[in-house]
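User: Please fill in residues for this 205-position structure.
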């Protein structure tokens, strides 16, 4: 494989690693699935999507990996009747159903270890407005597919969607990093335990 950046080891280049993961899984496409859970303004949503595309381009450009745009697939679920203000629980259930068949339809084979079929992104009213603000702290919600509540956790923390346990199955991730860097970091099976930060803290980088 040709190095995208001759001055950097391929193992230190996120774009090289994502490309390597695609080959290992035998997949054609990569990228998180996004759930739109806010419907106050179509124009705001369009601005949000443009911001995502801009961050994706900037991130891949940084790693000299713009060629990965050819295999990137931006899948967005939009349904005001079922997803408007939907909880992370509802989004997860929909995602679980989608994952049952999506890898075979998109890749022609099973999910492998692809992050695309293990995590999804939820964008609610609050997340949308943080991204559209003039500040540099915009975030979205990253949801883990196979999360189950830890019944051994006594649950003494402030409630998040009525959960007081430590791991609530989702976290808030900085919009500048989630499309590329966080996608890369979430590849290993142990990644969630290592990367997880409980809301309302935001995972950066």
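Assistant: Residues filled in for all 205 positions:
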């Amino acid at each position: 494989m040709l190095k995208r950046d001759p001055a950097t080891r391929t193992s230190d280049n996120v774009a090289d690693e994502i490309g390597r993961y695609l080959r290992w899984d035998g997949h054609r496409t990569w990228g998180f699935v996004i759930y739109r859970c806010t419907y106050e303004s179509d124009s705001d949503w369009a601005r949000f999507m443009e911001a995502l595309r801009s961050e994706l381009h900037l991130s891949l450009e940084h790693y000299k990996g713009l060629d990965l745009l050819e295999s990137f697939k931006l899948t967005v679920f939009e349904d005001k009747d079922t997803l408007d203000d939907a909880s992370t629980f509802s989004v997860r259930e929909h995602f679980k159903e989608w994952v049952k068949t999506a890898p075979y339809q998109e890749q022609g084979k099973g999910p492998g270890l692809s992050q695309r079929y293990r995590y999804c992104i939820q964008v609610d009213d609050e997340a949308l407005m943080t991204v559209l603000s003039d500040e540099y702290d915009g975030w979205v919600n990253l949801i883990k597919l196979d999360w189950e509540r830890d019944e051994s956790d006594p649950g003494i923390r402030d409630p998040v969607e009525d959960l007081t346990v430590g791991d609530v199955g989702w976290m808030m991730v900085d919009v500048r990093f989630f499309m590329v860097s966080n996608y890369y970091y979430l590849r290993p099976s142990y990644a969630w335990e290592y990367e997880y930060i409980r809301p309302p803290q935001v995972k950066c980088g």
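For context: Residues 131 and 138 are 4 Å apart (CA to CA).
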